[in-house]
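Entry 14. Ran structure prediction on the chain below.
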Amino acid sequence: MQLKVHEWGSAGAGKLAILIHGVMSSAGTWCRVAPLLVERGYHVLAPDLRGHGQSAHADSYRGEDFAADVVESLPSGADVVIGHSLGGRTLALAVDELRPGRAVYSDPAWLLSGARADVEAMAGFALATKTATAEQISQLNPRWAPEDVAAELEGFAAWDLKVMEGVGAFGDLDLPSPAVPSLVQAADPSFLVSREYGRRLEELGYQVAFVAGTGHCVHRDDLDGFMASLDGWI
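Output, structure tokens:
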């Protein structure tokens, strides 16, 4: 599938960053991150994954489907690719073909067996996204900026509820050593990246950084902390 790809900055900037959002969201999740990258000299591209944002809905939502779409829709060889949650899983499946200079996985959905209750709770929450209000989103996420709340409301309206059927069938990813220099950025506490799992990832060759006091959407809970954890990676 050819995805809708959003753009910030100039193609002549000299550096390219790609940002891949998580489930139920859209490229709008990066509305405060992308301008900061542009300030640092990047041209920024951010797709809406299948079943999200302005990209088409589909019959299949396997991990391999998300990854194939990204490979088809985005250039290889970006300086850095950042993937959040489902976007982090998608990036892990596509990284061999995308071949970025660096990869950043923000609270990635890799090890789901230990987070099954959270995944099931997310599936139960899915239907509620379609009637959610800005006030409800803000109450659930008190640290988010107003533009993050607005982007989430827009993402909720657009995403395909059937995506959760695919996500619900995801197993754990059997990760190899990283193909490119790779940072795993985790929430703290994280229901996806425990300290023990972080140590296992470090043994494989990933760098792991926990951003204290953040939930699953690190870049929305603490934008400054998110950016600080990327020192040396962007």
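The mean pLDDT is 95. Will compare against last week's run tomorrow.
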